[in-house]
Amino acid sequence: MTQPAIVLSIAGSDSGGGAGIQADIKAITCTGAFACTVITAITAQNTQGVQAVYPLSNQQVEQQLASISKDFKLAAIKIGMLHSASLCRLVMQFVRNHPQVPVVLDPVLVATQGQSLAQLDLLDALRELMLHASIITPNLSEAASLLACDKANTSQEVQAQGQQLLRMGAKAVLMKGGHLPAAQAIDWLFMAQHQAKSLAMDWVTTPNNHGTGCTLASALASYLAQGHSLVRATEMAKNYLHQALLSAKDWQLGKGPGPVDHCFAQRSC
Ligand code: PLP
C-alpha cells in the first residue's frame, strides 16, 4: 500500500484563499503529500487586504495539536502565522515533542499588503522557536525584524544577515531576496558549515504574488516529508512556486493582487 507522507501546517486562515492555511493545503497536496492543519487565527481577508484578525484561544490551538499528535505520524511540520507569543510557545512545545520531524518555519509578521499579522511580543518567541526549526524562510523584512536591524539592500547585506541568523542558532536559513533589484529572483540558502548557495529564477511579471511565502514554505515541507535533502527540496519548492506564479500571471480573481495557481499541473492535464 502506498500512501502520501503527512505534512502538518500550523497557520492562519485566509478567507480569500490565497495565503495561509488555504495556500498551504493546496501547495502540500499538489506537491504530492497529505495536509493536516492546526489553525492559529482566522483572518477576514480578500485580494485587497486584511480586514480583521481573530486569533484562536490557547485551548483551541492546544486541542488541535493534541488531536493531530495522538493519531498521525507526521513527516514534516510547516509553521506560518502564529500571531502571539503564547501561541508560539504552545507550538514550540509541540515541536520539541516531535524532535525527529523536520520543521519549516516561515516567520510571518506582516501580510503581503503590509497589515500586521502579529502581536508585538511574538518576535522574541519566534527567535526561540527558530532554534527548533530545521530551516527558517524569512523575507528581507522578516530577517531584519529577527535581527533587530535595517532591511538588507544589497546581496552582500543579504548574505551577512543570513550568516548572522545562523550565528543566532538557526540550523538553516532560506533568505527570500525577491524584492531586491536584480535581473532574476534570487534566494539564498545558508546552512551551518556549508557555503551559502544562491538560487536564481527568472522574474515573473505579475501582480499576483499573494501567498508566495506560504506556498514556498509548504512546498519545501512537502518535499522534505517525501525524503528529499534540504538543498534538493528547496530547489524543487522554488521551481514549483515559479510555475505556480507563471500559471496565474494573468488571473484577476479579485480587485487586488491575487494568489498563485497551486494546481497548475492538474489544470493542464
Ligand atoms: N498567513 C496568513 C493567514 C496570511 O493571511 C498571510 C498574508 O496575507 C500570510 C500568512 C503571509 O503571506 P505571504 O505568503 O504572502 O507572505
Helix count? 9
Q: Largest sheet, if any? A: 6 strands, mixed
User: For the record, what CATH class applies?
Assistant: Alpha Beta
**Distance linking N and C termini:** 25 Å
CATH architecture classification: 3-Layer(aba) Sandwich
In spatial order, strands of the major sheet run 3-2-1-4-5-6
Oligomeric state of the chains in view: single chain
Strand content: 15-25%
Which structural class is indicated by helix and strand composition? alpha/beta
Helix and strand run: EHEEHEHEHEHHEEEHHH
Bound small molecules, deduplicated = pyridoxal-5'-phosphate
CATH topology label: UDP-N-acetylmuramoyl-L-alanine:D-glutamate ligase
Describe the structure.
Helix 2 packs parallel to helix 3, helix 3 (85-96) runs parallel beside helix 4 and helix 5 crosses helix 6 (155-167). This protein has helices at residues 20-30, 58-71, 85-96, 122-129, 140-147, 155-167, 212-225, 230-247, 264-267; strands at residues 6-14, 34-46, 49-55, 76-79, 103-105, 135-136, 172-176, 184-191, 197-202. The model has no long low-confidence stretch (mean pLDDT 95). The chain is of the alpha/beta class. The protein has 9 helices and 9 strands. The chain has one domain: UDP-N-acetylmuramoyl-L-alanine:D-glutamate ligase (3-Layer(aba) Sandwich), CATH 3.40.1190. Strands 3-2-1-4-5-6 form a 6-stranded mixed sheet, with helices on both faces. It has a 3-stranded antiparallel sheet with strand order 7-8-9. The relative contact order is 0.16. Helix content is 38%, strand content 21%.
